[in-house]
Amino acid sequence: MHDIHPSIARLLALPEAARRIGPFVLVRQLGRGGFAPVWLAREVYGTETLRAVAVKLVALGGDASRRIVEEARALCRVEHRNVVRFHSLAVDEAAGVMGLGMEYVAGRSLAARLEAAGAMRAEQVVELGITLASALAAVHRAGIVHRDVKPANVVETAEGYKLVDFGIASARTSFPEAAAWAPSRDPESTGRVAALQSGTLGYVDPVTIATGGPASPESDLYAMGATLFECLTGRLPAGAYRGDLDERILDGRASPPPVATLAPDVPRALAASVDRMVRPDRTLRYGSAEEVAAAFERIRERTAARPSVMQVVAASAPILAVVSGIGTYAAYDRAARAEEAASRWMPALIQAEARRETTEPQMGAAAPAGIRPAAPRVEVERPAPTALTVCTPARSPRPSVAPSAAASSKPASTAPVTDVSACALDAWSVGACAPDSNVTSGERAHGAFVVFVPQVSARHPFY
Fold it and tell me: Is the pTM of this model over 0.90?
């Protein structure tokens, strides 16, 4: 029961059945340590349990009762989806204890999440920043200061984050051992600074530590900045250099390192905003929670307006599909028109070639005077024009082409292709045939096709 007021310690030492303040039967402790512990309780009327609540226990003393009642009344006016709701206030003057009953938020604390998974992604921290700033804006408008913003007091639920466990005015209560500064190094507990300010060391505003002044909206915003700093880097601002908390950063004599030096992948705008929140000089920070919320909203909008690589690819897919379809259609169209041209011209071409060869001097015949004999030729049996094969790269596989060799005496219908002329055509022109040529990648890429004419060795330029 370290740092717990004797009145609270006596109440908690009772058996569970007697451990009661007003309608709240205290079941188990939710928060560890601290002079104002929070307990899970059952709100009981008669023999019936109404609901489960969280009860913050505060020791009465001096004019603390009046201040706590005033602040509890203000808290009841705060209606925000990201702020824990306060239900009622129970006072046991004989025991010297007051219990503030508030909404019990079931979920995992942000501290537990950081411990389990480490630093968070930038977009998650942006959303967390908007949530916390919006919640603090509602609290500050009601004239209240949270006094203990830290990951342990932010609970992650199915509906989002909730700010819980307000410091309340209990930090202003006085009891003998409160005179010395005894800040807590435990992120789950709350310590005291100069008997005036509740807070956890590392999240307490350096101005508060240096001056011993009371908590303020500015100190809440510093604690929020320290929380976001930890979410991005895995370290507290005052513990970023060596791991241990640096006293010079704690009291504002030195500045913490920039977020970018610890987490270089964090977007610059986000890093700059968090750096601004944890500056030692309050005049260089944001002026209000509304200003912080607006800054983080702008960061979110800029992030959403800058698509990722995968978003660009996904958005471009329909356009790429259309362009690809147009290109494919054009290639097929060129091939179809070239095939039609070949079907008209090639029969006539083969017939003309047959007529021309009947007039050429045959091998061994005497050539007329002054005329150079033609090169020796090999007689081959020509297939009928119906043997013409038209092959388009996109429509049928290209047959294997063997180098030219001596003609076979076997019929063309059974002999392998031994002498092939390949003609590359497109929709606008017909290229010169080249014996034994192969289909090039360029011809395939431009939609050209090749005409395979078995056992024809002459070149056939035609237009």
Answer: no
